[in-house]
């Protein structure tokens, strides 16, 4: 019966094809030993992979030897690796369990790619689903954390999620299978074990059919999350205004939605922002603009009309020298490029109105020219004005957002600002009726 249900679960979830080679993650414990036997019974091509984490001395070595003998017994390929898990955990500042998980799944992924396996199968079952759900609930989670364990996640499949541990043990004894017992499973060192030994029995006393009702609950939670994701995507389209590499989340549109703070937190997860940061952004939207929030890769500034998401740029501390009239566009620190052209002034010349183009009296410019970010204290004489003005004041007057302020550069001639690039020409370098030659400089993205 278990073998038939096993095959039906695999086919029903389309985990792999009957001719696919599957890599089995086998620890030597009850679950993985039964999984290996079931793969053999349904004649599915497979190989075995075992990780020796070196955490239990001779017992760990004995586990590896036991699993290797299983591979010989079934006549299938065997892969073995060993990690210094404790050293890895100490180096990364994480728990031994987390280090072990990362090490084994990274290794499995390498084997799948190198050896051409269709996927890697792990022996998680319904008890694991319940324990994972409870762990996530205790630690704090959203709907995604209440799924327990997915049947498929990238190249990892879990073909035993339909069965309980008791059912696996009954089958193993009926088939005369032998397995290794990990002594640490009987201890209360880890949170999962404490839940398994003390919490789950209480819950099962309240509902003896708990393990069979959990999959139905998880299914409903997955359906609810699907609906939630669809609504988040729909409302994102209504709120988000994409502008090249930046996104403006319009304040009015966001605050008119139900649960705006929750939506904001979900939207901003992929950009590396925490739930706490998102909550503070929601509060900021109800106050005066100006606050700044930053993740490892993005910055969000509270502007007058909403939250502006921009990628963190590479270092903007550059200074580019243009020695002479270049033949082609000049790249400016990967931010933009400038194209230069010089020609005789036509009698009917009129400067273009495009802010991305500036026209200079070529004979007033002195080579070399310099391009650099504007700096606090920079002054220039804006076109049409008699006096000087701080560049910072110009940007404030033009209501330039903080990200755009940081990207604003200046073109200098003989250490004098000739152009606040893309924003304002200096009056001293303008084209006049006395101009004989014009230099045209154009911004190209």
From TrEMBL:
Purpose: Ligates lysine onto the cytidine present at position 34 of the AUA codon-specific tRNA(Ile) that contains the anticodon CAU, in an ATP-dependent manner. Cytidine is converted to lysidine, thus changing the amino acid specificity of the tRNA from methionine to isoleucine.
The organism's place on the tree of life at top rank: Bacteria
Protein name per UniProt: tRNA(Ile)-lysidine synthase
GO biological process: tRNA modification
Family: Belongs to the tRNA(Ile)-lysidine synthase family.
Chain positions recorded as ATP binding sites: 27-32
Keyword annotations of the record: ATP-binding, Cytoplasm, Ligase, Nucleotide-binding, tRNA processing
PANTHER family reported in the protein's UniProt record: TRNA(ILE)-LYSIDINE SYNTHASE-RELATED (PTHR43033:SF1)
A GO CC annotation given for this chain: cytoplasm
NCBIfam families recorded: lysidine_TilS_C, lysidine_TilS_N
Domain Lysidine-tRNA(Ile) synthetase C-terminal: 369-441
Record text about domains: The N-terminal region contains the highly conserved SGGXDS motif, predicted to be a P-loop motif involved in ATP binding.
Pfam families per record: ATP_bind_3, TilS_C
Organism listed in the record: Fibrisoma montanum
Top class in the EC scheme: ligase
Cellular location(s): Cytoplasm
MF-aspect GO terms: ATP binding; tRNA(Ile)-lysidine synthase activity
Main location: cytoplasm
Entry EC no(s): 6.3.4.19
Transmembrane segments: none
Reaction catalysis annotation: cytidine(34) in tRNA(Ile2) + L-lysine + ATP = lysidine(34) in tRNA(Ile2) + AMP + diphosphate + H(+)
């Amino acid at each position: 019966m278990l073998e038939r249900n096993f095959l039906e679960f695999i086919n029903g979830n389309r985990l792999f094809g009957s001719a696919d080679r599957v890599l089995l993650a086998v620890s030597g414990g009850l679950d993985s030993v039964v999984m290996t036997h079931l793969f053999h019974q349904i004649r599915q091509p497979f190989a075995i992979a075992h990780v020796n984490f070196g955490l239990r001395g001779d017992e760990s070595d004995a586990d590896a030897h036991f699993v290797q003998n299983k591979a010989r017994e079934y006549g299938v390929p065997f892969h073995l690796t060993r990690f210094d898990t404790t050293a890895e955990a100490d180096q990364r500042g994480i728990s031994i369990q987390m280090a072990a998980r990362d090490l084994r799944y990274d290794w499995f992924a390498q084997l799948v790619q190198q050896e051409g396996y269709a996927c890697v199968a792990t022996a998680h079952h319904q008890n694991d689903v319940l324990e994972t759900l409870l762990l996530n609930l205790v630690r704090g989670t959203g709907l995604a954390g209440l799924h327990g364990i997915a049947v498929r996640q990238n190249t990892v499949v879990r073909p035993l999620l339909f069965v309980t541990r008791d059912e696996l043990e009954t089958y193993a004894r009926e088939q005369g299978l032998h397995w290794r017992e990990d002594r640490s499973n009987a201890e209360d060192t880890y949170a999962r074990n404490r839940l398994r030994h003390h919490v789950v029995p209480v819950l099962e006393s309240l509902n003896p059919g708990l393990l069979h009702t959990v999959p139905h609950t998880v299914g409903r939670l997955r359906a609810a999350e699907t609906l939630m994701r669809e609504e988040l995507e729909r409302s994102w389209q209504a709120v988000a205004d994409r502008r090249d590499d930046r996104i403006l989340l319009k304040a009015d549109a966001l605050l008119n939605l139900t649960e705006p703070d929750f939506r904001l937190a979900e939207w901003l997860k992929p950009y590396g922002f925490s739930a706490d940061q998102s909550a503070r952004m929601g509060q900021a939207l109800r106050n005066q603009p100006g606050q700044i929030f930053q993740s490892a890769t993005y910055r969000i500034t509270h502007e007058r009309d909403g939250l502006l998401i921009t990628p963190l740029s590479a270092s903007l501390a550059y200074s580019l020298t243009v020695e002479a009239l270049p033949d082609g566009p000049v790249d400016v620190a990967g931010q933009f490029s400038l194209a230069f052209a010089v020609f005789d002034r036509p009698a009917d010349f009129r400067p273009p109105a495009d802010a991305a183009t500036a026209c200079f009296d070529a004979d007033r410019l002195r080579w070399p020219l310099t391009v650099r970010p504007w700096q606090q204290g920079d002054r220039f004489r804006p076109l049409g004005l008699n006096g000087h003005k701080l560049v910072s004041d110009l940007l404030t007057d033009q209501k330039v957002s903080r990200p755009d302020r940081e990207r604003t550069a200046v073109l200098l001639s003989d250490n004098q600002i000739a152009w606040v690039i893309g924003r304002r020409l200096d009056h001293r370098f303008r084209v006049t009726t006395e101009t004989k030659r014009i230099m045209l400089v154009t911004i190209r993205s």
